[in-house]
Structure formats: structure tokens, C-alpha cells
Amino acid sequence: MDEETLQAALNTADVLCAQRGVRFTAQRRRVLELVCRAERPVGAYEILGQLHTGATAAPPTVYRALDFLLEQGFVHKLETLHAFIGCTHPEHPHASQFLICADCGRVKELESEAVAGCLRSAAQETGFHPKRPVIEVLGTCAQCTHKAKKV
Amino acid sequence: MDEETLQAALNTADVLCAQRGVRFTAQRRRVLELVCRAERPVGAYEILGQLHTGATAAPPTVYRALDFLLEQGFVHKLETLHAFIGCTHPEHPHASQFLICADCGRVKELESEAVAGCLRSAAQETGFHPKRPVIEVLGTCAQCTHKAKKV
DNA sequence: CATTTTTCGAAACATTATAACAGTTGTGCG
DNA sequence: CGCACAACTGTTATAATGTTTCGAAAAATG
């Protein structure tokens, strides 16, 4: 995420938190910034390592901030990687799908209503009530596929 | 999984391993049995706890057996739960979806070609090459939804 | 400004997973 | 058969991820 996008994301978070009556503290802001700056998903302890902020930081510090950001939809957790990425459209709640490149490590967030709907109806056919769908696809991104062919 | 289904699963595994020229050792068989016997997904350390087989067992023992069973498609790993379940149709490779009940903990394995295909095409539209899709839905199963209404 | 709620700091601990290396067993082949 | 090799297993240690708990500080509330 480039500098401009980052600032926009932080602003959006600010506004949304104000609207929702929740506190966007310095700590949470800092964690969101670190997650967004990264090109790839970052682990909790990786964030922790970058949080030398005067006081020492312990795991709960990071996990608390991440929990908050997850609740607000500002970041997503990738279950297959035990890592976090900034959300590309935090304005509205949504069911996303993630394409994870095993080669370069980058992740693309899809938001296909077709996929979400298809899965929802398949689930509901069995009487199941979906709450939180987790859809992550491991594979190779366009760029890396291209590179592989050249070599 | 009831006793009959379990025996069938173990037999199937036997046959498939023979066909594939891989070894279905006592260790692996025991782990598969433990996973299949469980009503719900079981963690690696839970399996470990049930492996008092004369010699002591350490984590790598279980993880190695599980890796083998995963490769052969005899069990699945649920990324959101860090737990394993027996596969309900190991005969053919397949992309499954899992419906995980947050209430009773039971898991239903779907095998909807519609869902798999839909996701595959959504991914490929972006030039992405899917390898391993992970689809897990947290929610409430039919039974538990029903019970909740009664109370 | 006292009260209540929320957030944060700190230490310990719990859970899940892997690395590294040695020993053991099974398999194929001369 | 018996040797050589590969695959599997045992063992110890450690890494990586995530939680519990308790108490202090800071902020919102009335």
C-alpha cells in the first residue's frame, strides 16, 4: 500500500470510528499503519517487533489492537498464514475471498458476490446458517506465473 | 463415524495405499483411526494424548502421520480450528467445503462443484492459478438452529 | 471531581508446529 | 541370504502463535 492509499485508509478508519462511537487510539492506529504499509501479510509478532514505542510491547498489546481492527473490518486475518492484511474497502461489511500467491507472498482480496452467494446457498441447502465464511485460495498469481514461464 | 464406516475407511485407505505404492504403517493407521472415531475435529495434541502405545509419542510422530494422511487425502485439515477430520470420500481427489457448527462443533463436508467452479473462475479472471482452495464456513448447523428456537 | 468503563502494561503460560539428528525397520537387488 | 539404501520412527529441543490474569492508567460519563 503506497503512502497516499495509507493516509486515505487511516482517515477512513478515523471517520468510521467516530461514526461508530468507538475509540481509534494511537496504539490501534499505529498497528493499522504497520499492517497497511506491508506489501504482504504480516504476523502478529512481526508487528510486535516494529512497535518499539518507548514502552515495551507484549503480545497482548498487538492482539488487542488486531482484535479491534478485525471487529471494525479494517484488517483481515488470513487463517492459512496466521497473518493479517489491511482491508481494501473497509467502508462496508463484506465477505471476501483471498488469493494468496505461494511464490511472491502477495495477496489479492476479491469480493465476488457470485462466490459468496453460491457458497451461502450451498450451505443453506443443508439447513446450515452461515456466520463467517473463510475463503482463501493458495496458488500462483498472474505475475509469478508469467515469470515462471520465462525461466 | 460409526464402527462400520470406520472399518470401511480403514480398508479403503489400505487399498489406496497399496495401489499407490505407499506404506500404510501401524502408526498411520492408528492416527487415522483416532481421527475418524471422533465426532468432531481433533487437534494434533489431542491425538497425541491418545497414542499411549508402549513407546512414548512426541509431537513430530503425530504431525508426520497427519502429513501423510493429508497427502493421501484421507483426512482434511481445518485451518480455522487447527484440527483434523476424516475425509468422507477419499477415493478421488476433490475440493471440499466445510460447514463448521460453532455450537456443537460438528463439521459437515460439502463437495459442491458449483462452489468450487465459481471460485476457480473468479480467481482465474484475475490471472491467478489456484492450487489449494480453503473454504470453511463458521455458523450454526440445522440441528443447533432448531434447538435454539425451542429454548 | 468522583464514578464507571475502556484501554493499556506486564508477566506468565498455553497451544500449535518444526528442526535436527540418531536409531530402526522395511525393501529391493545382487 | 545379506548388504545397501530409503523410508519411517524416536527423542530432544525449540520456534511460532495465541491466551489468561491482574492491576494500573486514561478517558468518557454524570
UniProtKB/TrEMBL annotation, chains A, B:
Gene3D superfamilies: 3.30.1490.190, Winged helix-like DNA-binding domain superfamily/Winged helix DNA-binding domain. Pfam families: FUR (PF01475). Zn(2+) binds at residues 101, 104, 141, 144. Binds 1 zinc ion per subunit. GO terms for molecular function: DNA-binding transcription factor activity; transcription cis-regulatory region binding; zinc ion binding. GO terms for biological process: negative regulation of DNA-templated transcription; regulation of secondary metabolite biosynthetic process. It is found in: Cytoplasm. Its cofactor is Zn(2+). Transmembrane segments: none annotated. Keywords: Cytoplasm, DNA-binding, Iron, Metal-binding, Repressor, Transcription, Transcription regulation, Zinc. It comes from the Bacteria. GO terms for cellular component: cytosol. The keyword Isomerase does not apply. Homodimer. Belongs to the Fur family. This is Ferric uptake regulation protein. It comes from Lamprobacter modestohalophilus. The gene is fur.
